């Protein structure tokens, strides 16, 4: 299994994590509130699903007859699709949406209606990314193929000097690639590493589920719109591609601005598999917040601009991140632990593309 032999340094400020956990737990106990979702989470689920499925219904109805109108509906679906990914299924597949495991499992399945597969997502995100954040060779969010250089520990190739220019295009392909090929590649890869089996599912079952999920998605979101839409098939296909381009761009930039920045660190284990920091300190050094003062932006992206709080407490629903961020920040300052933060999303974007350029030209 990937990660065997990798050891965090348990002597690296263990008191910080003990104290921040104690204070956060006290916050929930004192205020008598659940760490899981609440009524606002239910409303957000309805809103995001509506933003995705209502425009789809209009496309099928034929009530909107203009090309521009139909393309606009597909664009709305792109934002709904990203909203579902960031604000709904993300919490559900972390188990923080509800106290009821069955509710989490059911809501988490919505990822299959935006082109993904829930098991592979849990492996890549929950198991690998959250455990081995910014560790070359272990975190699949940075250790992909060599199309982009996202870590100074990654091999530098000549064409990477142009990555600041072509990265946005690749980002726009993120969810489309997810639908077309990523899940097949991951099932093979994760199966060899025994990661699929550790999710309590066989390779055969995973393959069958992926086949049926992708086929159903193809019928619902390509075949039916082409058959029933009032515009030409290739115009419908352009709308479908636009939806994915919007979703991919939103998803990629939100997560890249949390980990691939000038302030965040990148690691590689030594020859014995040892890492420099404890798990909590590692998360603080590899993660950053941004735009915490923007209420609507934070609401739409599922509180993932509070990425530090999410990585320390992935079992807590994102509706609570703003409140506990004050506790985490104060505790970090008290124990001299970094708390990376950009005041605006623009600032985080600027930092991301700055480090992307440095990595591309081989400056780091």
From TrEMBL:
Residues 73-342 form the Fatty acid desaturase domain. One of its GO terms (biological process) is lipid biosynthetic process. One of its GO terms (molecular function) is oxidoreductase activity, acting on paired donors, with oxidation of a pair of donors resulting in the reduction of molecular oxygen to two molecules of water. The chain crosses the membrane at residues 41-59, 71-90, 102-119, 162-180, 215-234. Keywords: Membrane, Transmembrane, Transmembrane helix. Pfam families: FA_desaturase. One of its GO terms (cellular component) is membrane. It comes from the Bacteria. InterPro entries: FA_desaturase_dom, Fatty_acid_desaturase. This is Acyl-CoA desaturase. It comes from Arcticibacterium luteifluviistationis.
